[in-house]
Structures are given as C-alpha cells and as structure tokens.
Amino acid sequence: xxxxxxxxxxxxxxxxxxxxxxxxxxxxxxxxxxxxxxxxxxxxxxxxxxxxxxxxxxxxxxxxxxxxxxxxxxxxxxxxxxxxxxxxxxxxxxxxxxxxxxxxxxxxxxxxxx
Length: 114
What we know:
- It is globular and about 50 Å long.
- It has helices at residues 8-16, 43-67, 91-95; strands at residues 22-29, 71-76, 81-87, 100-104.
- The chain is built from 3 helices and 4 strands; from the N terminus they run αβαββαβ.
- The longest helix has 25 residues, at 43-67.
- The chain has a single domain, classed as Peptidase S8 propeptide/proteinase inhibitor I9 (Alpha-Beta Plaits), CATH 3.30.70.
- Strand 2 and strand 3 (81-87) form a beta hairpin.
C-alpha cells in the first residue's frame, strides 16, 4: 500500500474497518499535463480537450475500482476526482495506481461566514 497517498482521516477509517466494509473514497488524479498544441485553442476547445483527456485517464482507474469490488459513484473532470464506494480491502490496490495522487474521504463544502 502506498500510505503516502492516504489522507489521515481515510487511514483512520481503514484501521477501524473490516476488509469487507464499504467505504466512500475520493480519488484525486495526478494533474493533467498541459496541452502541447501548436496553435491556441478557444475556451470551448480547451474544455473539450480536458474532458476528453480526463475520460481517457480515468478509464483504467474505473476498471481498478470495479475489479476491487467497488463502484464509481461520480466523477468530476474539472478537479480531476472520482468518488467511489469500495471495500476496505480494495483501497490498497487503488493507492498503488500511478495516476492516483491522493485518496481521501468525501468532505462537505461549507460556505464561509463573514
């Protein structure tokens, strides 16, 4: 297991979980390399390119999630993340994927007050 990729809250949950317990896990992918296009692209072309690149990059990760007995819940190309439900025993396999930078638990966003 690549423990350096696990955020502390996920590590804590894994330590308390049985191998078959299903956990919600957020996988953050390594940042996409900047496009090496010779000509500038419009904003819509750049967005389409980034979506296509993400779709390509996320395919083997989704396959690994399914192979671990998990399921993909959602994905977000804009911040390069995948939300999955996986058995605790599958987190080790996912942490070893080269394209995965960080594994964490989902966090609720809260508005700043003030």
